[in-house]
From TrEMBL:
Name this polypeptide is given: CinA family protein
Species in which this protein is naturally found: Mycetocola tolaasinivorans
One Pfam entry name: CinA
Domain CinA C-terminal: residue ranges: 38-184
Highest taxon in the source lineage: Bacteria
Annotated segments matching region Disordered: 1-22
Entries under SUPFAM superfamilies matching the protein: CinA-like (SSF142433)
Length: 195
């Protein structure tokens, strides 16, 4: 998922047919194997907008999910992104809900929202974008524009996707991308722990 030579904490852009490592991610329709995520035992929290709970459903549908999944927030409405997840109001007013900074803040916010006595969730993943059939009414952002937010002790990053397909296909590809980002962040955290 990370482009050759890029820092994994830097925002990334991935599109269909772009010829980079991320091409398979943008075209993915089958979710990745989450066994390594579950084996690592790090707590996970999910914030969703355009996927409307599909990422959570995919995780919950996998045996072993209760070992890591703290919970999640479906913040489809822009106001909920601010009120529940703590996304900056000025950012939302200026950029709208489909923006890499919004994705990062959603991922950071859901870690906090899903905190327990043991602390914040170790990994926060978020989805925001435009599944269609029309461009975003607030900003005019094109159909297929998607951002996956990732937050952990390593910091925050966003993965930009430019997806093709109808509404259902864009949402399914987004779920796969979010789960791939979760698996990738688990690997990064494991590498950090062993270095």
């Amino acid at each position: 998922m990370t482009a050759h030579g890029s820092d994994p904490l830097q925002d990334q852009a991935v599109g269909p047919g772009d010829g980079r490592d991320g091409r398979a991610l943008a075209d993915a329709v089958l979710p990745p194997d989450l066994s390594a995520v579950f084996a690592a035992g790090r707590s996970v929290a999910i914030a969703e907008s355009l996927t409307g709970g599909l990422v959570l459903a995919e995780i919950v549908g996998t045996p072993g999910a209760s070992a890591v999944l703290r919970g999640g927030v479906v913040a489809y409405d822009t106001e909920l992104k601010r009120r529940v997840l703590g996304v900056d109001a000025a950012l939302l007013a200026e950029r709208g809900p489909v923006d890499p900074r919004v994705a990062r803040e959603m991922a950071r916010g859901v870690r906090r929202v899903c905190a327990t006595e043991g602390g914040e969730a170790a990994i926060g993943i978020s989805t925001t974008g435009v599944a269609g059939p029309s461009a975003d009414p607030q900003t005019g952002t094109a159909v297929g524009t998607v951002f996956i937010g990732v937050s952990s002790a390593r910091g925050e990053r966003a993965i930009a996707l430019n997806l093709d397909g109808d509404r259902a296909e864009i949402r399914a590809k987004t779920v796969c991308a979010a789960l791939s980002a979760l698996a990738e962040e688990t690997v990064f955290l494991d590498q950090d722990a062993h270095s």
